[in-house]
Amino acid sequence: MTTSLPAALAAGPVVVDGGLSTELEARGHDVSSSLWSARLLRDDPDAVVAVHAAFAAAGAQVATTASYQATVEGFAAAGLDRAGALALVARSVELARRSAPGSWVAGSVGPYGAALADGSEYTGGYVAEVGVDRLRAFHRPRMAALAEAGADVLACETLPAAAEVEAVLAEATSLGVPVWLSLTTVVDADGVARTRRGERAADVFAMARGVPEVVAVGVNCTDPAAVGPALDAAAAAGLPLLACPNSGEVWDAAARRWRGTGDVDTAAVPGWVRAGARLVGGCCRVGPAGIAAIARTLRHDQGP
């Protein structure tokens, strides 16, 4: 893209892609290992290219790399050394660029809990033990590799707790790379959006206020019904907002399967845009058809 992503966000909504890993799974690829879709960066890169291309054909303007679970630690457990792991992280950018040449490339930076492959990104239970310094050290190599490979922005996503937000903000500032900051949230009985760790989401989003590297804040891997309260909370940052909910289904980490049914109700999309959403897409179980419906809704809402 010749236009910078911040400039595009100032002009209007931008369509983000959907759930890369769950679309790979829907196409018959095995993503059940602890590496999830990152395994295919090594074993079947053409499959990753095909899904990126499908989302681009559906109207996605941002291609999110297959690096959510691509970490030095995760690849080490699979027998790959540090250099090999970081080469695969860089490959994720090249594959996205190749398959969606007209798109911005967002380098996916998943939370520490994703590397544990135990569903703890949906609890944030690890942050008290791990601490901010260790989280910074964990995120640093991948963030640097994605930036060096030419990602337009780093998608720091599915963050469950304030401590991890602090860590990725510190690393983004240290590296001087543009990021978007995306929490996974729930709504409490009083209608207040909270992180998975239980903190008030508005307080966590406010941590990004005044940080020049942050181009947008918002939510992903959140139930579609919880997006509205989350966007209200995200307004505390004073930045463009992001809304990339999952389908409404719930991940059962013990059984390693999705439970329930659901889909993103595109009738809610114009309301998200009125609330400030400028990056709109999907997450787990939202495939190319769902992204095409979001793109059509945005075109209709914006008019000719």
Q: Could you explain how this protein is built, in words?
A:
- GO terms for molecular function: S-adenosylmethionine-homocysteine S-methyltransferase activity; zinc ion binding.
- The strands form three sheets. The chain has an eight-stranded parallel beta sheet with strand order 1-12-9-8-5-4-3-2. It has a two-stranded antiparallel ribbon with strand order 6-7.
- The protein has 13 helices and twelve strands.
- Helix 4 packs parallel to helix 6 (82-99).
- The protein has a single domain (12-250, 259-299), classed as Homocysteine-binding-like domain (TIM Barrel, Alpha-Beta Barrel).
- The mean pLDDT is 94.
- It is of the alpha/beta class and 304 residues long.
- It is globular and about 50 Å long.
- The longest helix has 22 residues, at 127-148.
Brief write-up:
It contains 13 helices and twelve strands. The protein has 304 residues and is of the alpha/beta class.
What are the key terms here?
single chain; 304 residues; alpha/beta; TIM Barrel; 8-stranded parallel β-sheet; two-stranded antiparallel sheet; 12 strands; globular; HCY_dom_sf; Homocysteine S-methyltransferase; zinc ion binding; metal-binding
- Computed over alpha carbons, the radius of gyration is 17 Å
Uncertain stretches of 5 or more adjacent residues: none
Backbone structural class: alpha/beta
Shape-level CATH architecture: Alpha-Beta Barrel
The largest beta-sheet arranges its strands as 1-12-9-8-5-4-3-2
According to CATH, what is the class?
Alpha Beta
Number of domains: 1
GO molecular function: S-adenosylmethionine-homocysteine S-methyltransferase activity; zinc ion binding
Organism: Geodermatophilus obscurus
InterPro entries: BHMT-like, HCY_dom, HCY_dom_sf, Hcy_S-methyltransferase
Protein name: Homocysteine S-methyltransferase
